[in-house]
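Reopening this one. Same input as before:
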Amino acid sequence: MLEPFILIALAAGIGIALAAGPLGCFVVWRRMAYFGDATSHAAILGVALALLMNTPIILGILITAIGMALAVAVQREAVLAIDTLLGVAAHAALALGLFVVSLVPGRPIDLEAYLFGDILSLGPTDLLIIWIGVGIVFGILYWHWNALLLSTLDFDLASAEGLKPDRERLVLALTIAVLVAVSIKVVGALLITAMLIIPAATARIISQTPERMAMISAGFGAFAVYAGLYLSVWLDTPAGPSIVTIAAATFAITQTLRQLR
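Same output, byte for byte:
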């Protein structure tokens, strides 16, 4: 666990976990799980378009993730419920991304690294990009925490207080897009939503205040990263799924203990 590549992976994973913890609380409170899926699946389309146009992959991921976030954030329920629209968007983005990947000429593409993550292959540059993204997420949450929280708890009260709940919804969507873009190589497009939801859901079981839930969620996420990497090295299993497995096991144990009490 003291090898340089392990330490880089650990620093990257903990950074993602610390940002995903409080952000995931809003995903749980607002019941936005499908939104996380739609944004993360759009990242695969971003990878494909970046390779096709020979541009930096992180740029392609960021543009498509933000584009999906903007498209979803402005939707209102009409003929179809919002969860139905998000389900369509998530699967359409993933399918379109895989379709475009097949059109990329002459370049071998390790899709598994983008679908399930490849945290052990990260380098110093990747770590820098991840922590820049984490810093952006922290900054947004710091400046918008009260507005996001009030808009989440009571739309009408937030409006009466002079806030703009629709704007805060857009801010939250764009923040999730940034986190997805920088974490795609850590746990992958198919697992990033799990890192947003599972630690937050675990923290909700034992938390009494929103702030405590955010901190406990970050702690559970960081623990899942460390234990998952240890499990991956010990059993030679994929790192991303190992991290999510630890997070899910932590949730199951916490929920069971609560029911026993």
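So the earlier flakiness isn't reproducible anymore. For the record, The chain is about 80% helix and 0% strand.
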